[in-house]
Amino acid sequence: MDTEEDMPRPDELRDGTLAEVNALRDLLSQIGDPDAAHDAGVIDDDEYVERKARKLAYTSALAAYANGEVPDLPALLEQMREQASQPTQTETNTANIDYLLMTVGGDQ
């Protein structure tokens, strides 16, 4: 008859990591597509930046766990908030074109 000492103990670190990965996947699925929600006018700019940052942070954290690393999620989230608040290349290009049309004139 097996006793508790004979039974192998679960790897608590692995189980904790697995729980964290599952929680991140659940959170990621709840975020959905921030770009589509923003384009549809469902969320405002501030909510868009927050959702985009969370999506980027959770995706990066999952990639880190897949590589055997343990990410610092609060620091990662702060970094992604900064990144998400920056204009995209498309937004920058559109602003540049609009500025050119305004200064040079588009009806020539």
What count of domains describes the coordinates?
A: 1
Helix-strand category: mainly alpha
Percentage of residues in DSSP E strands: under 5%
Radius of gyration: 22 Å
Largest sheet: none
Low-confidence stretches: none
Please tell me about this protein's structure.
With 108 residues, the protein is mainly alpha-helical. The protein has one domain (12-104). Helix content is 71%, strand content 0%. The chain has 5 helices and no strands. The protein has helices spanning 12-31, 34-39, 45-66, 73-85, 89-104. Helix 1 packs antiparallel against helix 3 and helix 3 packs across helix 4. The termini are far apart. The model has no long low-confidence stretch (mean pLDDT 86).
